Amino acid sequence: MMTSVDTDLIRVLADPLRLQIVNLLAHETLCTTHLVEETGARQTNLSNHLKVLREAGVVETEPCGRFTYYRLKRDVIAALAGQFSDLAETARTTAETGRKRAC
User: Fold this and answer.
1) How far, in Å, CA of 97 to CA of 4, rounded?
2) Distance (Å) of CA 89 to CA 3, 21, 75
3) Residue-wise burial string across 52-72, b where 16 or more C-beta atoms lie within 10 A, e elsewhere
4) In the beta sheet, which residues pair with residue 66?
5) Angle, CA 87 vertex, CA 84 and CA 93 arms, to 5°
6) Residue 33 scores a pLDDT above 50
7) What is the largest distance, in Å, between two alpha-carbon atoms of the chain?
8) Is the N end or the C end of the chain the one with fewer CB atoms within 10 Å?
9) Could you give the CA distance from residue 93 to residue 74 in angstroms, rounded to a whole number?
């Protein structure tokens, strides 16, 4: 059985600022102003990263007056965690069975 992880999502989360945004949004729903304060990133840079996260389906938006709030989509992160869990189980099974391809 071949187990794989969503490499496109991994690439999205590989950026340190995007990962920091995801970590912050795991704790609370925040607007761009809050994220600028928390990360120290410039607003335009942050907006570009939020766009990437939105397009990847990692975050969703909630308009609130003149502000836009961002919320982490837990199901996407849970699915990725499940893929890593499956991969870890495959690695454990492989180690226990001593499976090795001959050269």
Assistant:
1) 20
2) 10, 29, 21
3) ebeebebbeeeeeeeeebbeb
4) none
5) 145
6) yes
7) 64
8) C
9) 28
Instruction: Please give the average per-residue pLDDT across 26-41, as a whole number.
Output: 96
Classify residue 14 by its DSSP letter: T
How many other C-beta atoms are found inside a 10 Å radius of the C-beta of residue 32? 15
pLDDT digits (tens, 9 = 90+) for 67-76: 999 999 989 8
pTM of the model: 0.82
pLDDT band at 3; cut points 50, 70, 90: low
Report the distance separating Cα 48 and Cα 37, nearest Å.
16
For residue 79, give every residue at least 6 positions away whose Cβ sits within 8 Å of its Cβ, in sequence order, or none. 6
For residue 62, is pLDDT > 90? Answer: yes
pLDDT number for residue 1: 44
